[in-house]
Amino acid sequence: MVHGFEIVISGLISTLAMEMVMRLTTGMKLANADMVRALGSLVTREYRTALLPGLLLHVVFGVVFAFFYASVVSFSPAHTSASIILITTILSIFHGLAFGVLLVILVAEHHPLPMFRTVGLRVVLAHLAGHVTYGFCLGLMFVFTRLQFTH
User: Residue 126 in contact with residue 82, Cβ under 8 Å?
Assistant: First the structure.
């Protein structure tokens, strides 16, 4: 049986880990991967008021995707610790690649702030790294919280 509270906590912690990777990437000036403010400014249309809505959106998406990942894991035939971590990590690779493509095609061209309109390979790779971190941490959290996945 899958328990919602554990999935919520797993999603929150994994989203935090993803955000740490994104902030590190941005802080080291490797790429403009400030996903929280990019999301928030889609709502507020300005940088200075984007933090709170961006955090809220990112956390909500992180928890919602944790439930999706848990559903996929629950339908997999293997439920060993290694298989759970592998499944969530592989899912996150596809999730990150899909998000990267959407970022380049849709968001960058139509973002209200010019600073988020420039998306290159570094930004896509930063988001991929963030998503893989999310998936790996989510798998670890599923194992750590001893979620029981059954059909």
Answer: no
Closest CA to 143 of 81, 66, 61, 92: 81
d(CA 63, CA 12): 6
The sign one gets for the Cα dihedral 93, 98, 101, 102 is negative
Give the pLDDT band of residue 128 (cuts 50, 70, 90).
very high
> Which sign does the torsion angle of CA 112, 114, 116, 121 carry?
positive
Per-domain residue ranges for the chain?
4-144
Tokens 């380049």, located at residue: 104
| Each residue's pLDDT tens digit, 108-119 | 778 888 888 888
Q: How many residues does the chain have?
A: 151
pTM comes to: 0.91
